[in-house]
Amino acid sequence: MHAGYRLGLVTSSIILGLTGCTPKLNMTAIEAEIKAEIERHGRRISLAEVRCPLNVVRQSGAYFRCVGTLKPEGEFTINVTQMDDAGTVNWDIPNSQIILNLVKLETSIQEDLAKRLTKRAIIDCGAVYRINQPGERFECQIVGGLDLGTEQLDAILVKVTPEGDLNWHEVRENNQVVDAASTSTTTSTSASESADTADSTRPATTPTGTPTRKIAGTREVERPRIAGDDD
């Protein structure tokens, strides 16, 4: 079978706790930790930098944006929320035309299989983050396979359309790819809108404005709106 995937906000996040006497967050440490985690859990992802705003005061529930910059090019948004007044932050990466969140993809495939086949499956796409490359194909494994009675479903073949959307197809034990007509739509995001979070003393990596075109190949990327936005 074939299914489509609409990109949205990621479901995975990592908690970073920072303590100290200063009422402001240690942004250098946050930048370093986020960069290390993305590279550690990403498939062949190398970042030039993660750039966060300066002088962020500790405040439970407050949020800000950081910008991740890929090598050699491509920028994406990282949404950060303060979980308490002690410096603990929770961050996530919106799915976009730049970065794919495979945890969200795994969950969507699992839900799709459960709905159509009434069978539970554990999907493993091999990483947490992956660069969104139009035209690329990759497989997500079904852990232990999925017994369909007369045959076994072993993997899901994911195809990235030229527009950066995701379609997936079932791969049966005889390597047959089962397909059906379907379409998918992409919700684009970018790291271009940093005016509300970037400190004026630090040079902005992108112009401000809403929304802004980011160049990553020939793809247009727009950042997501977040509750509480006033820009």
Please outline what is shown here.
With about 230 residues, the protein is α+β, with helices and mostly antiparallel strands. The protein has two helices and 14 strands; from the N terminus they run ββαββββββαββββββ.
Features:
231 residues; alpha+beta; 6-stranded antiparallel beta sheet; disordered C terminus
Any overview of this molecule?
Strands 1, 9, 11, 12, 13 and 14 form a six-stranded antiparallel β-sheet that branches. This protein is α+β, with helices and mostly antiparallel strands. Helices cover 13% and strands 31% of the residues. It starts with a strand and ends in a 53-residue tail after the last strand. It has a domain of 79 residues.
Cα distance, first to last residue?
42 Å
Helix and strand composition category: alpha+beta
Biggest sheet character: 6 strands, antiparallel
Percentage beta strand: 25-35%
For this structure, the quaternary state is single chain
> What string gives the helices and strands in order?
EEHEEEEEEHEEEEEE
The global form is elongated
User: What proportion of the residues is helical, as a percent range?
Assistant: 10-25%
Number of helices: 2
Number of strands: 14
- Average per-residue pLDDT, rounded, comes to 74
Topology:
Layout: E1 2-5, E2 14-16, H1 27-41, E3 42-43, E4 47-51, E5 63-70, E6 75-82, E7 89-92, E8 99-101, H2 102-117, E9 123-124, E10 129-131, E11 137-147, E12 152-160, E13 166-172, E14 177-178
Parallel strand pairs: 3-10
Antiparallel strand pairs: 1-13, 2-7, 4-5, 5-6, 6-7, 8-10, 9-11, 11-12, 12-13, 13-14
